[in-house]
Amino acid sequence: MSSSLSMSEVEPVRGHGLKGRSPQARLRQPFDPAACATEPSPVAGVTASSAAETLIGQLRRIGNGRPCVLVAHSVAGVVATVAAEQAPDLISEVVYLSAFAPVSGSPAAHYITEPENAGEMLTGLLVADPAQDGAFRQDTGDDERYPSLQEVFYGDVDDATAAAAISLLTPDGPTGMAGEPVTVTPQRYGTIPHTYLVCLQDKVVPVALQRRFTAEIDAVSARPTTVVELDASHSPFLSRPDELAEVIASVYRAQRPEEHQAQVAR
């Protein structure tokens, strides 16, 4: 989020969205599931550090000399955490939205086998070996997997919106982003305020894991994490956009009280 609410920007992290890439086998006809399961990912080289470098450049451009409120969803929380450690002067607050927030020296992938991650449904949707392909790969065009994709990512989203969102999903999530150990310091990352938005229906990042992340953030931070609960699945920006926007706006207003007062006075 930039220095003005009217100038807020959304940037996909490297390896996702418009910065993502599909394996060629996914696009060939007739479709060959075996080829799709073994083709090396075109985004295998993306790491948390390389994505954070890109993000820091975006923050410099968006903020135009002023620190930004940085909102990070899901695995983008890893990138935000690295960026916050490297460039704390560019960030006025980090808002984690049901996001991975590894701060204790372990990679995000470490948490996949932790007890707090019990009940997650994402790994069951993978169609390839991440160690072989370099990506957490999903086949978003598989009709048999479609109901599970909708349940996992968009469980409380209306069918039409969920269908549109699934059609835009990036098939490959870089394993390098989740596999890189992340360490932060109280002197840099710990000086930045943090808010964690817990999604109570999430089946990608279970509630217990979200709460563990907040506890680990608190262990290295100068002030406690602000925790806000949303009765939503993994994608509240689609199921509860107004509620989510108001929460983020309240964080922004707290960081820029003088601008909010000026807007109210107009």
From TrEMBL:
Descriptive protein name: AB hydrolase-1 domain-containing protein
UniProt xrefs under InterPro entries: AB_hydrolase_1 (IPR000073), AB_hydrolase_fold (IPR029058), Sec-Metab_Biosynth_Hydrolase (IPR052897)
Entry GO MF terms: catalytic activity
Pfam families in the record: Abhydrolase_6
Domain of life (superkingdom): Bacteria
Domain AB hydrolase-1: 14-247
Annotated region (Disordered), positions in chain: 1-27
